[in-house]
Amino acid sequence: MNFETLPGFRSFFPENCFLRNYIFKTWRKSAVSYNFQEYDAPTLEPLELYKEKSGEEIVNQLFNFVDKGDRAVALRPEMTPSLARLAGAKANSLKRPIKWFSIGEQFRYERPQKGRLRSFYQFNVDILGEPGVGADAELIGCLVETLKNFGLEQDDFKIRLSDRQLWILFLKHWNVSDAHMTSVLSIMDRMARLKKDKLRSQLNEYFGDDTDSFINSVEGLMAINSESDMLSFFSQLTLSEIHKQLVDDRLSELASLMQLINSMKIGQFVTIDFSIVRGLAYYTGFVFEAFEATGEGRALAGGGRYDDLIGRLSSNAMEAVGFAMGDVTLLDLLESKKKLPEYSQNPDVMILFSEDEARDCALADAQFLRSSGIKVDYPLKRVNFSKLFKEANQRGVPFVLIYGNEEIEKGLVKLKDFQTGEEYLIDRNERELLEKLKSLL
RNA sequence: GUGGAUGUAGCUCAGUUGGUUAGAGCAUCGGUUUGUGGUACCGAGGGCCGCGGGUUCGAGUCCCGUCUUCCACCCCA
After folding, report:
1. Which CATH number do you get for residue A395?
2. pLDDT tens digits, one per residue of A163-219
3. Are A126 and A100 in contact (CB under 8 A)?
4. Structural domain count of chain A
5. Is residue A4 part of a domain?
6. From the CA of A414, how many Å to the C1' of B36?
7. What's the Å distance between residue A13 CA and nucleotide B9 C1'?
8. Shortest CA to C1' contact from A418: nucleotide
Protein backbone atom coordinates (compact mmCIF):
# COMPACT_ATOMS: atom_id res chain seq x y z
CA MET A 1 0.00 0.00 0.00
CA ASN A 2 1.01 3.51 -0.71
CA PHE A 3 -0.49 6.20 1.48
CA GLU A 4 -0.51 9.84 0.56
CA THR A 5 -1.25 12.93 2.60
CA LEU A 6 -4.91 13.89 2.29
CA PRO A 7 -5.64 16.69 -0.20
CA GLY A 8 -5.12 20.13 1.28
CA PHE A 9 -3.10 18.77 4.21
CA ARG A 10 0.65 19.09 4.63
CA SER A 11 3.36 16.86 5.99
CA PHE A 12 6.06 18.73 7.85
CA PHE A 13 9.55 17.44 7.17
CA PRO A 14 12.21 18.92 9.48
CA GLU A 15 12.88 21.89 7.23
CA ASN A 16 9.12 22.65 7.06
CA CYS A 17 8.77 22.19 10.79
CA PHE A 18 11.61 24.63 11.28
CA LEU A 19 9.74 27.26 9.26
CA ARG A 20 6.48 26.58 11.04
CA ASN A 21 8.18 27.00 14.38
CA TYR A 22 9.76 30.21 13.17
CA ILE A 23 6.34 31.59 12.25
CA PHE A 24 4.80 30.52 15.55
CA LYS A 25 7.71 31.99 17.47
CA THR A 26 7.41 35.31 15.66
CA TRP A 27 3.64 35.45 16.09
CA ARG A 28 3.95 34.69 19.79
CA LYS A 29 6.72 37.22 20.32
CA SER A 30 4.67 39.92 18.61
CA ALA A 31 1.51 39.33 20.64
CA VAL A 32 3.39 38.98 23.92
CA SER A 33 5.16 42.29 23.34
CA TYR A 34 1.69 43.91 23.39
CA ASN A 35 0.88 41.93 26.54
CA PHE A 36 -1.72 39.74 24.90
CA GLN A 37 -2.36 36.49 26.83
CA GLU A 38 -2.29 33.15 25.03
CA TYR A 39 -5.31 30.84 25.14
CA ASP A 40 -6.40 27.74 23.25
CA ALA A 41 -9.62 25.79 22.75
CA PRO A 42 -10.65 22.36 21.46
CA THR A 43 -9.95 21.46 17.84
CA LEU A 44 -13.25 19.59 17.72
CA GLU A 45 -16.38 21.55 18.59
CA PRO A 46 -20.15 21.08 18.41
CA LEU A 47 -21.40 21.75 14.89
CA GLU A 48 -24.06 24.07 16.32
CA LEU A 49 -21.41 26.56 17.41
CA TYR A 50 -20.66 27.35 13.77
CA LYS A 51 -24.23 27.13 12.52
CA GLU A 52 -25.20 29.70 15.12
CA LYS A 53 -22.71 32.20 13.83
CA SER A 54 -22.78 31.60 10.10
CA GLY A 55 -25.94 29.72 9.22
CA GLU A 56 -26.71 26.39 7.61
CA GLU A 57 -24.65 26.96 4.44
CA ILE A 58 -21.43 26.90 6.43
CA VAL A 59 -21.76 23.13 6.86
CA ASN A 60 -20.67 22.61 3.23
CA GLN A 61 -17.33 24.06 4.12
CA LEU A 62 -16.73 22.19 7.36
CA PHE A 63 -15.08 18.91 8.25
CA ASN A 64 -18.05 17.60 10.18
CA PHE A 65 -19.38 14.19 11.23
CA VAL A 66 -21.47 12.47 13.85
CA ASP A 67 -19.40 11.02 16.70
CA LYS A 68 -20.02 7.72 18.51
CA GLY A 69 -22.19 9.52 21.06
CA ASP A 70 -24.45 10.77 18.26
CA ARG A 71 -23.13 14.31 18.58
CA ALA A 72 -22.88 16.46 15.46
CA VAL A 73 -19.32 17.78 15.61
CA ALA A 74 -16.92 19.74 13.39
CA LEU A 75 -13.21 20.44 13.26
CA ARG A 76 -12.93 24.15 13.96
CA PRO A 77 -12.84 26.31 10.82
CA GLU A 78 -11.99 29.44 12.79
CA MET A 79 -11.25 30.55 16.31
CA THR A 80 -13.74 33.32 16.97
CA PRO A 81 -16.76 31.24 18.11
CA SER A 82 -14.57 29.33 20.57
CA LEU A 83 -13.11 32.60 21.79
CA ALA A 84 -16.60 34.01 22.25
CA ARG A 85 -17.62 31.01 24.31
CA LEU A 86 -14.49 31.11 26.47
CA ALA A 87 -14.64 34.82 27.08
CA GLY A 88 -18.42 34.87 27.44
CA ALA A 89 -18.28 32.18 30.12
CA LYS A 90 -15.97 34.22 32.31
CA ALA A 91 -16.92 37.68 31.10
CA ASN A 92 -17.95 38.99 34.50
CA SER A 93 -14.75 38.02 36.24
CA LEU A 94 -12.16 38.98 33.62
CA LYS A 95 -10.31 42.22 33.95
CA ARG A 96 -11.06 44.57 31.02
CA PRO A 97 -9.84 45.04 28.47
CA ILE A 98 -9.37 41.36 27.71
CA LYS A 99 -6.34 41.01 25.43
CA TRP A 100 -6.03 37.45 24.16
CA PHE A 101 -4.29 35.64 21.32
CA SER A 102 -4.05 32.09 20.04
CA ILE A 103 -2.12 30.06 17.49
CA GLY A 104 -3.93 27.02 16.22
CA GLU A 105 -4.73 24.68 13.38
CA GLN A 106 -7.97 25.32 11.53
CA PHE A 107 -9.82 23.13 9.01
CA ARG A 108 -12.01 24.01 6.06
CA TYR A 109 -13.44 21.57 3.58
CA GLU A 110 -12.79 23.51 0.38
CA ARG A 111 -11.05 22.89 -2.88
CA PRO A 112 -7.36 23.44 -2.18
CA GLN A 113 -5.59 26.16 -4.13
CA LYS A 114 -2.49 28.23 -3.83
CA GLY A 115 -2.64 30.10 -0.54
CA ARG A 116 -5.63 28.10 0.53
CA LEU A 117 -5.49 24.62 2.04
CA ARG A 118 -7.82 22.43 4.05
CA SER A 119 -5.63 22.63 7.12
CA PHE A 120 -3.71 25.73 8.07
CA TYR A 121 -2.52 27.61 11.10
CA GLN A 122 -3.99 30.88 12.20
CA PHE A 123 -2.84 33.63 14.52
CA ASN A 124 -5.85 35.22 16.22
CA VAL A 125 -5.51 38.41 18.24
CA ASP A 126 -8.49 40.03 19.93
CA ILE A 127 -9.41 42.73 22.42
CA LEU A 128 -12.71 42.22 24.19
CA GLY A 129 -14.70 44.54 26.39
CA GLU A 130 -13.33 47.81 25.07
CA PRO A 131 -15.59 49.96 22.84
CA GLY A 132 -13.15 52.81 22.14
CA VAL A 133 -10.90 53.29 19.10
CA GLY A 134 -7.89 52.71 21.35
CA ALA A 135 -8.52 48.99 20.97
CA ASP A 136 -8.77 49.23 17.18
CA ALA A 137 -5.48 51.14 17.11
CA GLU A 138 -3.80 48.63 19.40
CA LEU A 139 -4.72 45.77 17.07
CA ILE A 140 -3.61 47.55 13.94
CA GLY A 141 -0.39 48.30 15.77
CA CYS A 142 0.06 44.67 16.70
CA LEU A 143 -0.63 43.59 13.13
CA VAL A 144 1.99 46.00 11.76
CA GLU A 145 4.46 44.94 14.42
CA THR A 146 3.94 41.27 13.60
CA LEU A 147 4.63 41.76 9.91
CA LYS A 148 7.66 43.91 10.73
CA ASN A 149 8.97 41.16 12.99
CA PHE A 150 9.09 38.93 9.93
CA GLY A 151 11.49 41.40 8.35
CA LEU A 152 8.84 42.99 6.14
CA GLU A 153 9.14 46.70 5.53
CA GLN A 154 7.17 49.64 4.24
CA ASP A 155 7.71 48.59 0.62
CA ASP A 156 6.46 45.09 1.35
CA PHE A 157 2.97 45.46 2.80
CA LYS A 158 0.09 47.86 3.45
CA ILE A 159 -2.81 47.91 5.87
CA ARG A 160 -6.01 49.07 4.24
CA LEU A 161 -8.50 50.60 6.63
CA SER A 162 -12.21 51.05 6.06
CA ASP A 163 -15.39 51.51 8.05
CA ARG A 164 -18.56 49.48 7.87
CA GLN A 165 -20.67 52.17 9.51
CA LEU A 166 -19.72 54.82 6.96
CA TRP A 167 -20.43 52.25 4.27
CA ILE A 168 -23.91 51.68 5.69
CA LEU A 169 -24.58 55.42 5.89
CA PHE A 170 -23.39 55.82 2.32
CA LEU A 171 -25.79 53.08 1.21
CA LYS A 172 -28.61 54.72 3.16
CA HIS A 173 -28.02 57.82 1.09
CA TRP A 174 -28.79 55.53 -1.86
CA ASN A 175 -31.95 54.36 -0.10
CA VAL A 176 -30.77 50.79 0.51
CA SER A 177 -33.13 49.27 3.06
CA ASP A 178 -31.90 47.54 6.22
CA ALA A 179 -33.14 44.25 4.80
CA HIS A 180 -30.90 44.58 1.75
CA MET A 181 -27.92 46.07 3.54
CA THR A 182 -25.97 42.83 4.10
CA SER A 183 -26.45 41.62 0.53
CA VAL A 184 -25.33 44.91 -0.98
CA LEU A 185 -22.32 45.08 1.34
CA SER A 186 -21.39 41.59 0.26
CA ILE A 187 -21.48 42.68 -3.41
CA MET A 188 -19.34 45.70 -2.51
CA ASP A 189 -16.83 43.36 -0.88
CA ARG A 190 -16.52 41.41 -4.13
CA MET A 191 -16.66 44.44 -6.39
CA ALA A 192 -13.02 44.51 -7.40
CA ARG A 193 -13.15 40.83 -8.33
CA LEU A 194 -16.41 40.96 -10.30
CA LYS A 195 -16.60 41.74 -13.99
CA LYS A 196 -18.36 44.97 -14.81
CA ASP A 197 -21.44 43.45 -16.50
CA LYS A 198 -21.86 40.87 -13.76
CA LEU A 199 -21.58 43.60 -11.16
CA ARG A 200 -24.15 45.70 -12.96
CA SER A 201 -26.66 42.88 -13.21
CA GLN A 202 -26.27 42.03 -9.54
CA LEU A 203 -26.74 45.64 -8.47
CA ASN A 204 -29.61 46.25 -10.83
CA GLU A 205 -31.87 44.31 -8.49
CA TYR A 206 -31.34 46.95 -5.83
CA PHE A 207 -30.74 50.15 -7.79
CA GLY A 208 -32.61 49.75 -11.07
CA ASP A 209 -32.03 52.69 -13.39
CA ASP A 210 -29.69 54.33 -10.90
CA THR A 211 -27.21 51.42 -11.10
CA ASP A 212 -24.67 53.21 -13.28
CA SER A 213 -24.65 56.38 -11.24
CA PHE A 214 -24.40 54.27 -8.08
CA ILE A 215 -21.38 52.45 -9.45
CA ASN A 216 -19.88 55.79 -10.35
CA SER A 217 -20.38 57.06 -6.85
CA VAL A 218 -18.93 53.87 -5.32
CA GLU A 219 -15.86 54.17 -7.49
CA GLY A 220 -15.45 57.71 -6.16
CA LEU A 221 -15.68 56.41 -2.60
CA MET A 222 -13.23 53.60 -3.21
CA ALA A 223 -10.69 55.95 -4.77
CA ILE A 224 -10.48 58.08 -1.64
CA ASN A 225 -7.25 57.69 0.28
CA SER A 226 -7.15 60.67 2.61
CA GLU A 227 -9.24 61.98 5.47
CA SER A 228 -9.83 65.34 3.81
CA ASP A 229 -11.22 63.76 0.65
CA MET A 230 -13.38 61.58 2.85
CA LEU A 231 -14.82 64.66 4.55
CA SER A 232 -15.70 66.39 1.28
CA PHE A 233 -17.12 63.19 -0.22
CA PHE A 234 -19.57 62.68 2.62
CA SER A 235 -20.50 66.38 2.81
CA GLN A 236 -21.90 66.08 -0.71
CA LEU A 237 -24.32 63.30 0.18
CA THR A 238 -27.95 64.08 0.83
CA LEU A 239 -28.83 62.57 4.17
CA SER A 240 -31.38 63.16 6.91
CA GLU A 241 -30.27 65.28 9.89
CA ILE A 242 -29.93 62.15 12.01
CA HIS A 243 -27.76 60.40 9.47
CA LYS A 244 -25.72 63.53 8.90
CA GLN A 245 -24.95 63.58 12.62
CA LEU A 246 -24.00 59.91 12.52
CA VAL A 247 -21.65 60.56 9.61
CA ASP A 248 -19.99 63.41 11.50
CA ASP A 249 -19.58 61.22 14.58
CA ARG A 250 -18.07 58.46 12.51
CA LEU A 251 -15.69 60.73 10.67
CA SER A 252 -14.41 62.08 13.95
CA GLU A 253 -13.94 58.52 15.23
CA LEU A 254 -11.93 57.82 12.11
CA ALA A 255 -9.89 60.96 12.75
CA SER A 256 -9.20 59.80 16.33
CA LEU A 257 -8.14 56.39 15.09
CA MET A 258 -5.81 57.87 12.50
CA GLN A 259 -4.34 60.15 15.16
CA LEU A 260 -3.56 57.18 17.38
CA ILE A 261 -2.04 55.34 14.43
CA ASN A 262 0.17 58.32 13.69
CA SER A 263 1.18 58.57 17.34
CA MET A 264 2.26 54.93 17.15
CA LYS A 265 4.45 55.89 14.17
CA ILE A 266 2.80 53.36 11.90
CA GLY A 267 0.91 55.84 9.74
CA GLN A 268 3.12 55.02 6.75
CA PHE A 269 1.79 51.45 6.76
CA VAL A 270 -1.89 52.36 6.91
CA THR A 271 -4.06 53.79 4.12
CA ILE A 272 -7.75 54.57 4.07
CA ASP A 273 -9.29 52.34 1.45
CA PHE A 274 -13.03 51.75 1.20
CA SER A 275 -12.63 48.91 -1.27
CA ILE A 276 -12.22 46.88 1.91
CA VAL A 277 -15.65 45.89 3.15
CA ARG A 278 -15.19 42.34 4.52
CA GLY A 279 -17.80 39.86 3.42
CA LEU A 280 -18.86 38.90 6.89
CA ALA A 281 -22.12 40.22 8.19
CA TYR A 282 -20.94 40.45 11.77
CA TYR A 283 -18.48 43.32 11.43
CA THR A 284 -19.86 46.48 12.98
CA GLY A 285 -17.18 49.14 12.74
CA PHE A 286 -13.70 49.72 11.42
CA VAL A 287 -12.40 46.86 9.27
CA PHE A 288 -8.91 46.34 7.90
CA GLU A 289 -6.84 43.98 5.82
CA ALA A 290 -3.11 43.55 5.29
CA PHE A 291 -1.89 43.09 1.73
CA GLU A 292 1.34 42.73 -0.14
CA ALA A 293 2.24 46.30 -1.10
CA THR A 294 1.37 46.01 -4.79
CA GLY A 295 -1.97 44.47 -3.88
CA GLU A 296 -1.14 41.13 -5.47
CA GLY A 297 -2.35 37.90 -3.97
CA ARG A 298 -4.62 37.09 -1.10
CA ALA A 299 -4.97 39.16 2.02
CA LEU A 300 -2.24 38.39 4.56
CA ALA A 301 -4.55 39.17 7.45
CA GLY A 302 -7.94 40.64 8.06
CA GLY A 303 -9.91 41.94 10.97
CA GLY A 304 -12.20 44.50 12.44
CA ARG A 305 -14.72 45.29 15.10
CA TYR A 306 -17.55 42.88 15.86
CA ASP A 307 -19.40 44.26 18.86
CA ASP A 308 -22.53 42.09 18.62
CA LEU A 309 -21.14 38.62 18.03
CA ILE A 310 -20.17 37.58 21.54
CA GLY A 311 -23.63 38.37 22.84
CA ARG A 312 -25.07 36.10 20.17
CA LEU A 313 -22.77 33.21 21.01
CA SER A 314 -22.77 33.47 24.80
CA SER A 315 -24.90 34.80 27.60
CA ASN A 316 -22.77 37.90 28.02
CA ALA A 317 -22.58 40.65 25.42
CA MET A 318 -19.19 42.28 24.98
CA GLU A 319 -17.56 44.62 22.49
CA ALA A 320 -14.80 43.03 20.46
CA VAL A 321 -12.18 43.79 17.84
CA GLY A 322 -9.67 41.38 16.41
CA PHE A 323 -7.66 40.15 13.48
CA ALA A 324 -6.51 36.81 12.10
CA MET A 325 -3.45 35.90 10.03
CA GLY A 326 -2.92 32.59 8.25
CA ASP A 327 0.38 30.81 7.79
CA VAL A 328 -0.08 29.79 4.14
CA THR A 329 -0.24 33.20 2.47
CA LEU A 330 2.37 34.50 4.87
CA LEU A 331 4.80 31.71 3.95
CA ASP A 332 4.27 32.38 0.24
CA LEU A 333 4.99 36.05 0.72
CA LEU A 334 8.04 35.58 2.94
CA GLU A 335 9.44 33.12 0.43
CA SER A 336 8.93 35.43 -2.52
CA LYS A 337 10.52 38.31 -0.59
CA LYS A 338 13.38 36.05 0.53
CA LYS A 339 12.68 36.81 4.18
CA LEU A 340 12.69 33.23 5.46
CA PRO A 341 15.52 32.15 7.76
CA GLU A 342 17.89 29.50 6.51
CA TYR A 343 17.52 25.99 7.81
CA SER A 344 20.57 24.21 9.15
CA GLN A 345 20.81 20.82 10.77
CA ASN A 346 24.41 21.30 11.79
CA PRO A 347 25.61 21.00 15.34
CA ASP A 348 27.83 23.71 16.85
CA VAL A 349 30.52 21.13 17.45
CA MET A 350 31.28 17.78 15.88
CA ILE A 351 33.37 15.41 17.97
CA LEU A 352 35.84 12.97 16.51
CA PHE A 353 37.44 10.28 18.64
CA SER A 354 39.40 7.07 18.39
CA GLU A 355 38.63 3.94 20.39
CA ASP A 356 38.71 3.08 24.08
CA GLU A 357 40.10 5.69 26.43
CA ALA A 358 39.70 8.52 23.96
CA ARG A 359 36.07 7.60 23.40
CA ASP A 360 35.36 7.58 27.13
CA CYS A 361 36.78 11.08 27.47
CA ALA A 362 34.95 12.31 24.39
CA LEU A 363 31.54 11.02 25.43
CA ALA A 364 31.90 12.43 28.93
CA ASP A 365 32.82 15.85 27.58
CA ALA A 366 30.02 15.70 25.03
CA GLN A 367 27.46 15.21 27.78
CA PHE A 368 28.89 18.12 29.72
CA LEU A 369 28.83 20.45 26.72
CA ARG A 370 25.29 19.40 25.85
CA SER A 371 24.06 20.12 29.34
CA SER A 372 25.65 23.57 28.97
CA GLY A 373 23.47 24.29 25.98
CA ILE A 374 25.91 23.59 23.17
CA LYS A 375 24.64 21.57 20.23
CA VAL A 376 26.99 18.58 20.01
CA ASP A 377 27.01 15.66 17.61
CA TYR A 378 29.38 12.80 16.80
CA PRO A 379 29.31 9.78 14.50
CA LEU A 380 27.39 6.87 15.97
CA LYS A 381 29.56 4.33 14.27
CA ARG A 382 33.28 4.16 13.78
CA VAL A 383 34.43 6.33 10.88
CA ASN A 384 37.89 7.30 9.84
CA PHE A 385 39.16 10.77 10.60
CA SER A 386 39.51 12.00 7.06
CA LYS A 387 35.93 11.09 6.27
CA LEU A 388 34.63 13.08 9.18
CA PHE A 389 36.75 16.08 8.28
CA LYS A 390 35.35 15.95 4.83
CA GLU A 391 31.81 15.68 6.09
CA ALA A 392 32.18 18.48 8.61
CA ASN A 393 33.51 20.66 5.86
CA GLN A 394 30.77 19.79 3.39
CA ARG A 395 28.02 20.41 5.87
CA GLY A 396 29.55 23.62 7.17
CA VAL A 397 30.01 22.50 10.77
CA PRO A 398 31.84 25.37 12.48
CA PHE A 399 33.98 23.39 14.98
CA VAL A 400 35.45 19.94 15.38
CA LEU A 401 36.83 18.56 18.64
CA ILE A 402 39.46 15.88 18.24
CA TYR A 403 40.05 13.20 20.87
CA GLY A 404 42.87 11.21 19.34
CA ASN A 405 45.34 8.97 21.12
CA GLU A 406 48.04 11.60 20.65
CA GLU A 407 46.03 14.22 22.51
CA ILE A 408 44.70 11.97 25.24
CA GLU A 409 48.20 10.78 26.20
CA LYS A 410 49.17 14.37 26.88
CA GLY A 411 45.88 15.21 28.66
CA LEU A 412 44.90 17.51 25.85
CA VAL A 413 42.09 17.93 23.35
CA LYS A 414 42.33 19.61 19.99
CA LEU A 415 39.74 22.12 18.83
CA LYS A 416 39.63 23.03 15.17
CA ASP A 417 37.86 26.10 13.84
CA PHE A 418 36.68 25.21 10.38
CA GLN A 419 36.13 28.77 9.27
CA THR A 420 39.67 29.93 9.90
CA GLY A 421 41.37 26.55 9.83
CA GLU A 422 42.99 27.41 13.13
CA GLU A 423 43.64 24.66 15.68
CA TYR A 424 43.87 25.03 19.46
CA LEU A 425 45.28 22.57 21.98
CA ILE A 426 43.34 22.78 25.21
CA ASP A 427 43.88 21.08 28.57
CA ARG A 428 41.29 18.38 29.06
CA ASN A 429 39.21 20.27 31.54
CA GLU A 430 35.48 20.74 31.15
CA ARG A 431 35.37 24.36 32.16
CA GLU A 432 38.26 25.44 30.00
CA LEU A 433 36.79 23.63 27.04
CA LEU A 434 33.41 25.27 27.53
CA GLU A 435 34.93 28.72 27.88
CA LYS A 436 37.05 28.37 24.82
CA LEU A 437 34.05 27.23 22.81
CA LYS A 438 31.79 29.96 24.10
CA SER A 439 34.38 32.57 23.22
CA LEU A 440 34.53 31.31 19.65
CA LEU A 441 30.87 30.50 18.95
C1' G B 1 -19.57 22.24 -6.74
C1' U B 2 -18.06 24.02 -12.44
C1' G B 3 -14.29 24.56 -16.34
C1' G B 4 -9.04 24.09 -18.05
C1' A B 5 -4.01 22.14 -17.49
C1' U B 6 -0.90 18.48 -15.07
C1' G B 7 1.47 13.65 -13.25
C1' U B 8 8.27 9.34 -15.27
C1' A B 9 13.78 8.18 -9.19
C1' G B 10 13.92 12.24 -3.04
C1' C B 11 14.39 16.99 -6.60
C1' U B 12 14.75 19.09 -11.86
C1' C B 13 13.68 16.78 -16.22
C1' A B 14 14.83 13.36 -21.03
C1' G B 15 12.35 9.19 -23.22
C1' U B 16 12.10 8.63 -31.32
C1' U B 17 5.75 7.30 -36.05
C1' G B 18 3.76 2.29 -29.96
C1' G B 19 9.08 -2.07 -30.25
C1' U B 20 14.39 -5.57 -26.14
C1' U B 21 15.99 -5.10 -19.34
C1' A B 22 12.92 3.02 -18.66
C1' G B 23 17.62 7.21 -18.69
C1' A B 24 20.59 11.89 -17.16
C1' G B 25 22.03 15.73 -13.69
C1' C B 26 21.62 16.94 -8.60
C1' A B 27 20.86 14.53 -3.87
C1' U B 28 21.76 9.89 -0.80
C1' C B 29 25.12 5.74 0.52
C1' G B 30 29.97 3.25 -0.20
C1' G B 31 35.06 3.42 -2.02
C1' U B 32 40.00 5.86 -3.91
C1' U B 33 45.01 1.12 1.71
C1' U B 34 42.47 3.75 8.63
C1' G B 35 44.81 11.64 11.77
C1' U B 36 42.95 16.80 8.39
C1' G B 37 38.90 20.13 3.93
C1' G B 38 34.32 21.81 -0.42
C1' U B 39 37.31 19.64 -6.13
C1' A B 40 38.24 14.99 -8.92
C1' C B 41 37.66 9.72 -10.04
C1' C B 42 35.14 4.77 -9.33
C1' G B 43 30.84 2.27 -7.65
C1' A B 44 25.90 1.26 -5.36
C1' G B 45 20.94 1.77 -3.95
C1' G B 46 16.60 4.01 -5.42
C1' G B 47 10.83 3.56 -10.44
C1' C B 48 3.52 -0.56 -9.94
C1' C B 49 6.10 5.59 -15.65
C1' G B 50 -0.33 8.64 -10.22
C1' C B 51 -4.21 4.61 -10.04
C1' G B 52 -7.86 1.44 -12.75
C1' G B 53 -9.73 -0.27 -17.25
C1' G B 54 -9.45 -0.58 -22.77
C1' U B 55 -7.09 -0.94 -27.91
C1' U B 56 -2.73 -3.89 -29.64
C1' C B 57 1.42 -9.47 -30.94
C1' G B 58 3.43 -5.43 -27.87
C1' A B 59 1.61 0.73 -24.04
C1' G B 60 5.71 5.38 -20.17
C1' U B 61 3.85 6.53 -25.33
C1' C B 62 -2.94 5.80 -28.07
C1' C B 63 -8.32 5.85 -25.85
C1' C B 64 -11.76 6.06 -21.46
C1' G B 65 -12.47 6.65 -16.31
C1' U B 66 -10.56 8.16 -11.64
C1' C B 67 -7.34 10.63 -8.15
C1' U B 68 -3.56 14.37 -7.14
C1' U B 69 -1.43 19.06 -7.91
C1' C B 70 -1.87 23.86 -10.27
C1' C B 71 -4.95 27.85 -12.64
C1' A B 72 -9.74 30.31 -13.30
C1' C B 73 -14.83 30.39 -11.25
C1' C B 74 -17.68 29.68 -6.45
C1' C B 75 -16.44 30.91 -1.60
C1' C B 76 -13.24 33.35 1.59
C1' A B 77 -14.94 33.03 8.74
Report:
1. 3.40.50.800
2. 999 999 999 999 999 888 988 998 898 887 788 888 888 898 899 899 999 999 999
3. yes
4. 2
5. no
6. 12
7. 19
8. B37
